[in-house]
Design brief:
By secondary structure, the chain is α+β, with helices and mostly antiparallel strands. The chain contains two helices and eight strands, in the order ββαββββββα. The chain has a single domain, classed as Roll (PH-domain like). This is GRAM domain-containing protein.
């Protein structure tokens, strides 16, 4: 992932999209089982799929201001669940309005929730 000027990576890890919905409708077929690397920076949340060591394909990208909520769902197979404003999403998807909910399988979702919450709060305080 290419960092922008003044941007620092806070966390990254291999991820798998388990569920995606928008406007109360499941849109699993759009992103279901997309595998890639999830990156959290001090400015945005990005998920990319590696095509080759030199090239990646963007799955989605959100500025931190677009993220509304991050929590852990599930009892045994815990997943990171994120709600986001789709109008601020960069992606190949044609969905550009309303709020979306992503469930992402990733190692240590508890740490991800803590890091996301902290990054979102810090970004809001900067503005």
């Amino acid at each position: 992932m290419q960092l922008k000027q003044g941007e620092g990576e806070l966390q990254s890890g291999k991820a798998l999209i388990k569920e995606f919905s928008a406007g109360g409708k499941s849109l699993k077929e759009k992103l279901l089982d997309d595998k890639g690397t999830l990156h959290l920076t001090n400015r945005r949340l990005v998920m990319e799929r590696e095509i080759s060591p030199e090239k990646s394909d963007l799955i989605f990208e959100f500025p931190l201001e677009a993220l509304q909520n991050a929590e852990i769902k599930g009892v045994f197979g815990k997943v990171l669940t994120i709600e986001a404003d789709l109008s601020k999403m960069s992606s190949g998807l044609k969905i550009k309005e309303g709020f979306g909910k992503f469930s992402i399988k990733i190692d240590d979702p508890k740490t991800w929730v803590a890091q996301l919450s902290k990054a979102i709060k810090s970004r809001k305080e900067e503005r």
